[in-house]
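Let us work through a complete example step by step.
Step 1: write down the sequence.
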Amino acid sequence: MKDMLLALVSNKAADYLEIRVEESTVSNLRFRGPVLEAVNSSMQYGGCIRALVNGGWGFITFNDLNNLEEKVAQAIHQAELVGAAGGDGRLTPVPVVQDIVQVPVLEDPRQVKLADKVDLFRGYNEIVLSHGKQIVSSSINYFDKYSKIYFANSEGTYILQHKLDLAGGVSAIASDGSTTQMGRVGFGSSTDFGVARNLEEKVQAACAKAIDLLAAPSVRGGEYTVIVDPELAGIFAHEAFGHLSESDFVYENPNLQAVMKLGTKFGGEFLNIFDTGLEVGARGYLKYDDEGVATEKTHLIKDGTLVGRLHTRETAAKLGERPTGNARALDYTFAPICRMRNTCIGQGEASFEDMLKGVKLGVYAKGSYGGETNGEMFTFSADEGYMIRDGKLAELVRDVNLTGNVFTTLGNIDMIGKDFTPHESPGGCGKGGQVPLPTSEWAPHMRIQNVLIGGK
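Step 2: predict the structure and record it as C-alpha coordinates.
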Protein backbone atom coordinates (compact mmCIF):
# COMPACT_ATOMS: atom_id res chain seq x y z
CA MET A 1 0.00 0.00 0.00
CA LYS A 2 2.78 2.44 0.90
CA ASP A 3 4.63 2.20 -2.42
CA MET A 4 1.40 2.36 -4.42
CA LEU A 5 0.04 5.46 -2.65
CA LEU A 6 3.34 7.36 -2.73
CA ALA A 7 3.70 6.58 -6.45
CA LEU A 8 0.17 7.86 -7.14
CA VAL A 9 0.86 11.29 -5.66
CA SER A 10 4.44 11.72 -6.93
CA ASN A 11 5.61 13.51 -10.08
CA LYS A 12 2.19 14.87 -11.03
CA ALA A 13 1.27 18.26 -12.48
CA ALA A 14 0.07 19.69 -9.16
CA ASP A 15 1.54 21.92 -6.47
CA TYR A 16 0.37 19.43 -3.87
CA LEU A 17 -1.38 16.05 -3.84
CA GLU A 18 -2.60 13.77 -1.06
CA ILE A 19 -4.50 10.50 -0.89
CA ARG A 20 -6.34 9.02 2.09
CA VAL A 21 -7.68 5.44 2.22
CA GLU A 22 -9.87 4.25 5.11
CA GLU A 23 -10.86 0.74 6.11
CA SER A 24 -13.27 0.52 9.06
CA THR A 25 -15.33 -2.01 10.99
CA VAL A 26 -18.39 -0.61 12.77
CA SER A 27 -20.94 -2.04 15.19
CA ASN A 28 -23.90 -0.29 16.80
CA LEU A 29 -27.13 -0.95 18.66
CA ARG A 30 -30.12 1.00 19.87
CA PHE A 31 -32.90 0.36 22.42
CA ARG A 32 -36.08 2.44 22.67
CA GLY A 33 -38.07 1.34 25.66
CA PRO A 34 -38.23 -2.48 25.67
CA VAL A 35 -37.56 -2.69 21.93
CA LEU A 36 -34.16 -3.41 20.40
CA GLU A 37 -34.65 -1.10 17.42
CA ALA A 38 -31.33 -1.64 15.69
CA VAL A 39 -28.27 -3.84 15.90
CA ASN A 40 -25.72 -4.32 13.17
CA SER A 41 -22.11 -4.75 12.23
CA SER A 42 -20.61 -3.51 8.98
CA MET A 43 -17.44 -2.70 7.09
CA GLN A 44 -16.70 0.61 5.40
CA TYR A 45 -14.06 1.15 2.73
CA GLY A 46 -13.14 4.13 0.61
CA GLY A 47 -10.78 6.99 0.08
CA CYS A 48 -10.23 10.47 -1.27
CA ILE A 49 -7.73 12.49 -3.27
CA ARG A 50 -7.06 16.19 -2.76
CA ALA A 51 -5.07 18.30 -5.20
CA LEU A 52 -3.84 21.90 -5.10
CA VAL A 53 -3.01 23.76 -8.34
CA ASN A 54 -2.40 27.51 -8.54
CA GLY A 55 -4.39 28.13 -5.36
CA GLY A 56 -7.35 25.96 -6.39
CA TRP A 57 -8.44 22.77 -4.62
CA GLY A 58 -9.79 19.63 -6.24
CA PHE A 59 -11.36 16.79 -4.26
CA ILE A 60 -12.41 13.29 -5.41
CA THR A 61 -13.75 10.33 -3.40
CA PHE A 62 -13.76 6.64 -4.31
CA ASN A 63 -14.88 3.27 -2.92
CA ASP A 64 -12.34 0.92 -4.52
CA LEU A 65 -8.74 1.05 -5.68
CA ASN A 66 -9.48 0.65 -9.38
CA ASN A 67 -8.48 3.41 -11.82
CA LEU A 68 -6.80 5.54 -9.19
CA GLU A 69 -4.54 7.22 -11.75
CA GLU A 70 -7.69 8.45 -13.48
CA LYS A 71 -9.10 9.73 -10.20
CA VAL A 72 -5.87 11.59 -9.46
CA ALA A 73 -6.14 13.23 -12.87
CA GLN A 74 -9.75 14.24 -12.12
CA ALA A 75 -8.74 15.86 -8.83
CA ILE A 76 -5.94 17.77 -10.56
CA HIS A 77 -8.31 18.91 -13.30
CA GLN A 78 -10.80 20.19 -10.71
CA ALA A 79 -8.00 22.06 -8.96
CA GLU A 80 -6.87 23.62 -12.25
CA LEU A 81 -10.40 24.93 -12.91
CA VAL A 82 -10.70 26.41 -9.43
CA GLY A 83 -7.19 27.86 -9.61
CA ALA A 84 -7.96 29.52 -12.94
CA ALA A 85 -11.02 31.13 -11.37
CA GLY A 86 -8.90 32.72 -8.63
CA GLY A 87 -8.35 30.21 -5.83
CA ASP A 88 -6.23 31.35 -2.89
CA GLY A 89 -5.26 27.99 -1.33
CA ARG A 90 -1.72 27.62 0.01
CA LEU A 91 0.02 25.49 2.59
CA THR A 92 2.57 26.10 5.32
CA PRO A 93 5.53 23.66 5.08
CA VAL A 94 5.62 20.87 7.67
CA PRO A 95 8.06 18.02 8.35
CA VAL A 96 7.87 14.90 6.19
CA VAL A 97 6.69 11.93 8.27
CA GLN A 98 6.93 8.16 7.86
CA ASP A 99 5.10 6.36 10.67
CA ILE A 100 2.75 3.55 11.70
CA VAL A 101 0.49 4.32 14.68
CA GLN A 102 -1.12 1.55 16.69
CA VAL A 103 -4.00 1.91 19.17
CA PRO A 104 -2.93 1.20 22.78
CA VAL A 105 -6.05 -0.91 23.29
CA LEU A 106 -7.07 -1.95 26.81
CA GLU A 107 -10.19 -3.95 25.84
CA ASP A 108 -10.78 -4.24 22.11
CA PRO A 109 -14.49 -4.00 21.14
CA ARG A 110 -13.76 -6.18 18.10
CA GLN A 111 -13.08 -9.04 20.52
CA VAL A 112 -16.49 -8.66 22.17
CA LYS A 113 -19.27 -10.53 20.37
CA LEU A 114 -22.12 -8.38 19.11
CA ALA A 115 -24.55 -10.59 21.03
CA ASP A 116 -22.59 -9.93 24.23
CA LYS A 117 -22.78 -6.17 23.61
CA VAL A 118 -26.54 -6.47 23.19
CA ASP A 119 -26.82 -8.45 26.43
CA LEU A 120 -24.76 -5.84 28.33
CA PHE A 121 -26.98 -2.98 27.24
CA ARG A 122 -30.15 -5.01 27.61
CA GLY A 123 -29.15 -5.38 31.26
CA TYR A 124 -28.90 -1.60 31.64
CA ASN A 125 -32.23 -1.23 29.86
CA GLU A 126 -33.91 -3.62 32.28
CA ILE A 127 -32.56 -1.60 35.23
CA VAL A 128 -34.18 1.52 33.79
CA LEU A 129 -37.52 -0.03 32.90
CA SER A 130 -37.87 -1.79 36.25
CA HIS A 131 -36.98 1.25 38.37
CA GLY A 132 -40.54 2.38 39.04
CA LYS A 133 -43.77 3.48 37.44
CA GLN A 134 -42.60 7.07 36.97
CA ILE A 135 -39.91 5.82 34.56
CA VAL A 136 -41.95 5.59 31.38
CA SER A 137 -39.26 4.75 28.81
CA SER A 138 -35.59 4.40 28.05
CA SER A 139 -33.19 5.35 25.28
CA ILE A 140 -29.90 3.51 24.80
CA ASN A 141 -27.33 3.96 22.04
CA TYR A 142 -23.91 2.41 21.50
CA PHE A 143 -21.38 2.31 18.66
CA ASP A 144 -17.75 1.43 18.05
CA LYS A 145 -15.57 2.05 15.01
CA TYR A 146 -12.07 0.66 14.41
CA SER A 147 -10.26 2.19 11.42
CA LYS A 148 -7.04 1.82 9.49
CA ILE A 149 -6.29 5.11 7.74
CA TYR A 150 -3.55 5.27 5.11
CA PHE A 151 -2.26 8.74 4.18
CA ALA A 152 0.35 9.77 1.62
CA ASN A 153 1.22 13.10 0.04
CA SER A 154 3.44 14.44 -2.71
CA GLU A 155 5.94 15.77 -0.16
CA GLY A 156 6.86 12.21 0.84
CA THR A 157 4.79 11.74 3.97
CA TYR A 158 3.28 8.28 4.53
CA ILE A 159 1.32 7.41 7.69
CA LEU A 160 -0.77 4.40 8.62
CA GLN A 161 -2.92 5.19 11.66
CA HIS A 162 -5.02 2.65 13.51
CA LYS A 163 -7.88 4.44 15.31
CA LEU A 164 -10.62 3.38 17.69
CA ASP A 165 -13.66 5.42 18.67
CA LEU A 166 -16.51 4.12 20.82
CA ALA A 167 -19.26 5.84 22.75
CA GLY A 168 -22.73 5.36 24.11
CA GLY A 169 -25.38 6.56 26.48
CA VAL A 170 -28.18 5.25 28.69
CA SER A 171 -31.15 7.56 29.32
CA ALA A 172 -34.02 7.11 31.75
CA ILE A 173 -37.17 9.05 30.89
CA ALA A 174 -39.57 9.94 33.70
CA SER A 175 -43.03 11.50 33.52
CA ASP A 176 -45.80 12.47 35.94
CA GLY A 177 -48.32 13.07 33.17
CA SER A 178 -47.61 16.76 32.77
CA THR A 179 -43.81 16.98 32.92
CA THR A 180 -41.11 14.83 31.39
CA GLN A 181 -37.54 14.71 32.72
CA MET A 182 -34.46 12.68 31.91
CA GLY A 183 -31.45 11.22 33.67
CA ARG A 184 -28.46 10.12 31.62
CA VAL A 185 -25.20 8.17 31.73
CA GLY A 186 -22.70 8.71 28.92
CA PHE A 187 -19.27 7.30 28.12
CA GLY A 188 -16.65 7.26 25.39
CA SER A 189 -13.08 6.19 24.70
CA SER A 190 -10.42 5.82 22.04
CA THR A 191 -8.81 2.78 23.69
CA ASP A 192 -11.16 0.78 25.90
CA PHE A 193 -14.50 -1.02 25.63
CA GLY A 194 -14.28 -1.39 29.40
CA VAL A 195 -15.76 2.09 29.88
CA ALA A 196 -19.11 0.57 28.82
CA ARG A 197 -19.03 -1.99 31.63
CA ASN A 198 -20.07 -1.81 35.30
CA LEU A 199 -22.44 1.14 34.87
CA GLU A 200 -25.26 -0.34 36.98
CA GLU A 201 -24.95 2.10 39.89
CA LYS A 202 -24.72 5.09 37.55
CA VAL A 203 -27.81 3.91 35.67
CA GLN A 204 -29.73 3.59 38.95
CA ALA A 205 -28.64 7.10 39.92
CA ALA A 206 -29.78 8.44 36.54
CA CYS A 207 -33.22 6.92 37.11
CA ALA A 208 -33.46 8.48 40.56
CA LYS A 209 -32.39 11.86 39.20
CA ALA A 210 -35.05 11.79 36.47
CA ILE A 211 -37.73 11.12 39.09
CA ASP A 212 -36.40 13.78 41.48
CA LEU A 213 -36.46 16.38 38.70
CA LEU A 214 -40.21 15.79 38.22
CA ALA A 215 -40.85 17.25 41.67
CA ALA A 216 -38.20 19.97 41.45
CA PRO A 217 -39.30 23.57 40.84
CA SER A 218 -38.05 25.53 37.85
CA VAL A 219 -35.27 27.92 38.70
CA ARG A 220 -36.39 31.52 38.97
CA GLY A 221 -34.87 33.53 36.15
CA GLY A 222 -32.34 36.20 36.98
CA GLU A 223 -28.67 37.05 37.31
CA TYR A 224 -26.69 34.80 39.64
CA THR A 225 -23.27 33.74 40.76
CA VAL A 226 -23.03 30.32 39.12
CA ILE A 227 -20.77 27.36 39.79
CA VAL A 228 -20.59 24.97 36.84
CA ASP A 229 -19.41 21.39 37.19
CA PRO A 230 -16.51 19.98 35.09
CA GLU A 231 -18.84 18.60 32.41
CA LEU A 232 -20.60 21.90 31.79
CA ALA A 233 -17.35 23.87 32.07
CA GLY A 234 -15.85 21.63 29.38
CA ILE A 235 -18.85 22.13 27.10
CA PHE A 236 -18.47 25.89 27.59
CA ALA A 237 -14.79 25.70 26.61
CA HIS A 238 -15.64 23.73 23.48
CA GLU A 239 -18.79 25.41 22.23
CA ALA A 240 -18.42 29.00 23.35
CA PHE A 241 -14.67 29.49 22.96
CA GLY A 242 -13.21 26.55 21.04
CA HIS A 243 -15.11 27.24 17.84
CA LEU A 244 -14.01 30.89 17.93
CA SER A 245 -10.43 29.58 18.08
CA GLU A 246 -10.77 27.59 14.83
CA SER A 247 -8.80 29.71 12.40
CA ASP A 248 -10.99 29.24 9.35
CA PHE A 249 -13.66 31.22 11.23
CA VAL A 250 -11.08 33.85 12.16
CA TYR A 251 -9.67 34.14 8.63
CA GLU A 252 -13.12 34.54 7.07
CA ASN A 253 -14.35 37.18 9.56
CA PRO A 254 -12.48 40.52 9.86
CA ASN A 255 -14.54 41.49 12.93
CA LEU A 256 -13.53 38.26 14.67
CA GLN A 257 -9.90 38.90 13.73
CA ALA A 258 -10.09 42.17 15.64
CA VAL A 259 -11.72 40.56 18.68
CA MET A 260 -9.47 37.48 18.66
CA LYS A 261 -6.22 39.42 18.35
CA LEU A 262 -3.33 37.56 19.94
CA GLY A 263 -2.26 39.27 23.16
CA THR A 264 -5.79 40.31 24.11
CA LYS A 265 -6.63 39.92 27.81
CA PHE A 266 -9.73 37.78 28.30
CA GLY A 267 -9.65 36.75 31.96
CA GLY A 268 -7.79 36.46 35.22
CA GLU A 269 -4.26 35.13 35.61
CA PHE A 270 -5.72 31.77 36.70
CA LEU A 271 -7.56 31.21 33.37
CA ASN A 272 -5.94 28.73 30.98
CA ILE A 273 -7.65 27.08 28.00
CA PHE A 274 -5.90 24.66 25.65
CA ASP A 275 -6.69 22.09 22.98
CA THR A 276 -4.73 18.85 22.78
CA GLY A 277 -4.56 15.68 20.73
CA LEU A 278 -2.13 13.97 23.10
CA GLU A 279 -4.38 12.50 25.81
CA VAL A 280 -4.48 8.75 25.15
CA GLY A 281 -7.97 7.38 25.76
CA ALA A 282 -9.78 10.64 25.06
CA ARG A 283 -12.11 10.62 22.06
CA GLY A 284 -10.17 13.63 20.82
CA TYR A 285 -6.87 11.73 20.87
CA LEU A 286 -4.93 11.43 17.61
CA LYS A 287 -1.21 11.36 16.90
CA TYR A 288 -1.53 12.94 13.44
CA ASP A 289 -4.31 14.97 11.91
CA ASP A 290 -5.80 14.29 8.47
CA GLU A 291 -3.08 16.33 6.74
CA GLY A 292 -0.35 14.19 8.33
CA VAL A 293 0.64 16.89 10.81
CA ALA A 294 1.64 15.81 14.32
CA THR A 295 -0.82 16.96 16.94
CA GLU A 296 0.18 18.81 20.09
CA LYS A 297 -1.02 20.70 23.12
CA THR A 298 -2.02 24.11 21.76
CA HIS A 299 -2.40 26.88 24.35
CA LEU A 300 -5.29 29.20 23.46
CA ILE A 301 -5.58 31.33 26.62
CA LYS A 302 -2.58 31.33 28.96
CA ASP A 303 -2.66 33.24 32.24
CA GLY A 304 -5.77 35.04 31.03
CA THR A 305 -4.27 36.19 27.70
CA LEU A 306 -5.05 34.95 24.18
CA VAL A 307 -1.85 33.32 22.95
CA GLY A 308 -2.87 30.92 20.17
CA ARG A 309 -5.49 29.39 17.92
CA LEU A 310 -6.15 26.18 16.03
CA HIS A 311 -4.76 25.72 12.54
CA THR A 312 -4.69 23.57 9.45
CA ARG A 313 -1.76 23.97 7.09
CA GLU A 314 -3.88 26.30 4.95
CA THR A 315 -5.17 28.58 7.71
CA ALA A 316 -1.66 28.79 9.15
CA ALA A 317 -0.36 29.98 5.78
CA LYS A 318 -3.15 32.54 5.37
CA LEU A 319 -2.68 34.02 8.85
CA GLY A 320 1.10 33.72 8.92
CA GLU A 321 1.08 31.42 11.95
CA ARG A 322 2.07 27.83 12.78
CA PRO A 323 0.12 24.62 11.97
CA THR A 324 -1.20 22.93 15.12
CA GLY A 325 -2.46 19.57 13.80
CA ASN A 326 -6.16 20.48 13.78
CA ALA A 327 -7.09 19.46 10.22
CA ARG A 328 -9.76 16.77 10.67
CA ALA A 329 -12.29 15.02 8.47
CA LEU A 330 -15.25 12.97 9.65
CA ASP A 331 -14.34 10.26 7.12
CA TYR A 332 -13.01 9.83 3.59
CA THR A 333 -16.09 11.47 2.03
CA PHE A 334 -14.97 14.87 3.38
CA ALA A 335 -11.94 17.10 2.95
CA PRO A 336 -10.29 18.04 6.28
CA ILE A 337 -11.21 21.35 7.89
CA CYS A 338 -10.11 23.07 11.09
CA ARG A 339 -11.58 21.18 14.07
CA MET A 340 -10.99 20.80 17.80
CA ARG A 341 -9.57 17.68 19.48
CA ASN A 342 -9.76 17.70 23.31
CA THR A 343 -10.56 21.23 24.50
CA CYS A 344 -9.72 21.86 28.15
CA ILE A 345 -9.86 24.45 30.90
CA GLY A 346 -6.67 24.12 32.90
CA GLN A 347 -6.59 23.24 36.59
CA GLY A 348 -6.94 26.03 39.13
CA GLU A 349 -6.36 26.21 42.87
CA ALA A 350 -9.85 26.57 44.39
CA SER A 351 -11.78 23.84 46.20
CA PHE A 352 -15.51 23.42 45.72
CA GLU A 353 -15.98 24.65 49.29
CA ASP A 354 -13.98 27.80 48.43
CA MET A 355 -16.39 28.46 45.57
CA LEU A 356 -19.47 28.11 47.79
CA LYS A 357 -18.13 30.54 50.41
CA GLY A 358 -19.59 34.01 50.20
CA VAL A 359 -22.33 33.12 47.70
CA LYS A 360 -25.50 34.46 49.31
CA LEU A 361 -27.75 33.38 46.41
CA GLY A 362 -26.48 31.42 43.44
CA VAL A 363 -26.90 28.34 41.27
CA TYR A 364 -24.84 25.16 40.96
CA ALA A 365 -25.31 23.92 37.36
CA LYS A 366 -24.44 20.30 36.59
CA GLY A 367 -24.16 18.39 33.33
CA SER A 368 -25.28 19.51 29.92
CA TYR A 369 -28.22 18.84 27.67
CA GLY A 370 -26.28 20.75 25.02
CA GLY A 371 -26.66 24.27 23.75
CA GLU A 372 -26.03 26.57 20.85
CA THR A 373 -23.77 29.45 19.95
CA ASN A 374 -24.17 32.38 17.60
CA GLY A 375 -20.86 34.13 17.19
CA GLU A 376 -19.86 35.29 20.66
CA MET A 377 -23.29 34.61 22.20
CA PHE A 378 -24.17 31.28 23.81
CA THR A 379 -27.02 29.41 25.49
CA PHE A 380 -26.47 26.15 27.43
CA SER A 381 -28.96 23.93 29.22
CA ALA A 382 -27.81 22.13 32.37
CA ASP A 383 -28.97 18.61 33.24
CA GLU A 384 -29.84 19.75 36.75
CA GLY A 385 -29.20 22.57 39.16
CA TYR A 386 -29.11 23.31 42.86
CA MET A 387 -29.71 26.63 44.51
CA ILE A 388 -26.87 27.99 46.61
CA ARG A 389 -28.08 29.79 49.73
CA ASP A 390 -25.74 31.43 52.22
CA GLY A 391 -22.75 29.43 51.04
CA LYS A 392 -24.45 26.03 51.07
CA LEU A 393 -26.12 23.80 48.50
CA ALA A 394 -29.90 23.92 48.83
CA GLU A 395 -32.86 22.61 46.83
CA LEU A 396 -32.78 20.85 43.47
CA VAL A 397 -34.07 22.97 40.54
CA ARG A 398 -34.68 22.28 36.88
CA ASP A 399 -34.84 24.18 33.56
CA VAL A 400 -31.47 25.84 34.20
CA ASN A 401 -30.45 27.69 31.02
CA LEU A 402 -27.29 29.81 30.96
CA THR A 403 -27.08 32.66 28.44
CA GLY A 404 -24.40 35.23 27.78
CA ASN A 405 -21.52 36.69 25.81
CA VAL A 406 -18.46 34.45 25.84
CA PHE A 407 -15.95 37.28 26.29
CA THR A 408 -17.91 38.91 29.11
CA THR A 409 -18.29 35.50 30.73
CA LEU A 410 -14.56 34.76 30.51
CA GLY A 411 -13.92 38.02 32.33
CA ASN A 412 -16.49 37.12 34.99
CA ILE A 413 -14.80 33.82 35.93
CA ASP A 414 -13.38 34.42 39.40
CA MET A 415 -12.48 30.90 40.55
CA ILE A 416 -11.28 27.71 38.86
CA GLY A 417 -11.18 24.41 40.72
CA LYS A 418 -8.25 22.15 41.42
CA ASP A 419 -10.39 19.09 40.50
CA PHE A 420 -9.49 18.86 36.79
CA THR A 421 -11.73 16.03 35.53
CA PRO A 422 -11.59 14.05 32.27
CA HIS A 423 -15.05 13.67 30.74
CA GLU A 424 -16.02 11.72 27.63
CA SER A 425 -19.49 12.19 26.19
CA PRO A 426 -21.28 10.04 23.59
CA GLY A 427 -22.00 12.90 21.21
CA GLY A 428 -19.72 14.64 18.77
CA CYS A 429 -18.91 18.00 17.28
CA GLY A 430 -20.69 19.31 14.19
CA LYS A 431 -19.28 21.71 11.63
CA GLY A 432 -19.51 22.09 7.87
CA GLY A 433 -21.87 19.13 7.56
CA GLN A 434 -19.36 16.84 9.28
CA VAL A 435 -21.06 15.40 12.35
CA PRO A 436 -20.50 13.71 14.78
CA LEU A 437 -16.73 14.15 14.91
CA PRO A 438 -15.24 12.64 18.10
CA THR A 439 -14.01 15.32 20.49
CA SER A 440 -13.48 15.65 24.24
CA GLU A 441 -13.93 18.41 26.80
CA TRP A 442 -12.01 18.23 30.08
CA ALA A 443 -12.23 20.80 32.87
CA PRO A 444 -12.51 21.44 36.63
CA HIS A 445 -15.34 23.22 38.47
CA MET A 446 -15.56 26.92 37.68
CA ARG A 447 -17.28 29.89 39.34
CA ILE A 448 -18.70 32.75 37.27
CA GLN A 449 -20.19 36.02 38.44
CA ASN A 450 -23.27 37.73 36.94
CA VAL A 451 -24.60 34.88 34.80
CA LEU A 452 -28.03 35.30 33.27
CA ILE A 453 -30.18 32.26 34.07
CA GLY A 454 -33.39 31.76 32.14
CA GLY A 455 -36.15 30.04 34.04
CA LYS A 456 -39.48 30.64 35.66
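Step 3: interpret the result. The chain has a mean pLDDT of 97.
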